[in-house]
């Protein structure tokens, strides 16, 4: 519920003030970008979780969602957070041979197109503190739909990462 603060404009001599409600409510998110070489189409999948951290159970739930919606082989490019390396996740991947997992180098967020998705989302939410958790969820859903509808924005996220796509 703490707003992301970004540089903004104001009248000379008037410092902009952003009022927040306080509290420690939060929304955690997990996301993936999919691309198909044949159709040259990019998809965005995001799930939000209220007041909980993303753990192995939520990752497996998300992977099941991807398996239902994406046909064929799925190549996962993951950062190196501990959740992605858990025994439960490893067992899940072994039982689902359609999924192939590759990890990014140690600390290389600039290689991860998903980081650029979150940059877009955060930019959209900057300087607008939500009054309630429901408002934050509503704003996140609106940002998600905006990104999902814009192939250009999603393509720019992949190109910004420098990963080969075409």
Polypeptide structure, described:
It is a single chain. The chain is α+β, with helices and mostly antiparallel strands and 166 residues long. The chain has helices at 56-69, 87-95, 113-125, 133-149, 151-161; strands spanning 27-36, 41-50, 74-78, 99-103. It has a single domain, classed as Nucleotidyltransferase, domain 5 (2-Layer Sandwich). A hairpin with a 4-residue loop joins β1 and β2. The longest helix is centred in the C-terminal third of the chain and has 17 residues, at 133-149. The relative contact order is 0.19.
Q: Which fold does the CATH topology refer to? A: Nucleotidyltransferase, domain 5
Tally of domains: 1
Instruction: Name the CATH superfamily classification.
Output: Ribonuclease H-like superfamily/Ribonuclease H
H and E order: EEHEHEHHH
What percentage of the residues does DSSP assign to strands (E)?
A: 15-25%
CATH architecture designation = 2-Layer Sandwich
Cα-to-Cα separation, first versus last residue: 39 Å
Broad shape: globular
């Amino acid at each position: 519920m703490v707003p992301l603060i970004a540089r903004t404009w104001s009248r000379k001599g008037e410092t902009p003030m952003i009022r927040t409600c306080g509290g420690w409510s939060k929304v955690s998110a997990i996301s993936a970008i999919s691309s198909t070489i044949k159709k040259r189409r990019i998809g965005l999948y995001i799930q939000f979780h209220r007041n909980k951290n993303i753990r192995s159970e939520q990752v497996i739930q998300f992977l099941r969602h991807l398996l239902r919606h994406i046909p064929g082989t799925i190549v996962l490019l993951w950062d190196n957070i501990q959740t992605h390396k858990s025994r439960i996740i490893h067992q899940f991947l072994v039982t689902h041979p359609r999924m192939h997992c590759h990890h990014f180098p140690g600390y290389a967020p600039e290689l991860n197109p998903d980081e650029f998705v979150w940059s877009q989302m955060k930019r959209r939410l900057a300087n607008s503190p939500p009054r309630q958790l429901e408002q934050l969820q509503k704003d996140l859903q609106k940002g998600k739909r905006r990104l999902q509808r814009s192939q250009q924005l999603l393509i720019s996220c992949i190109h910004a990462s420098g990963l080969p796509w075409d």
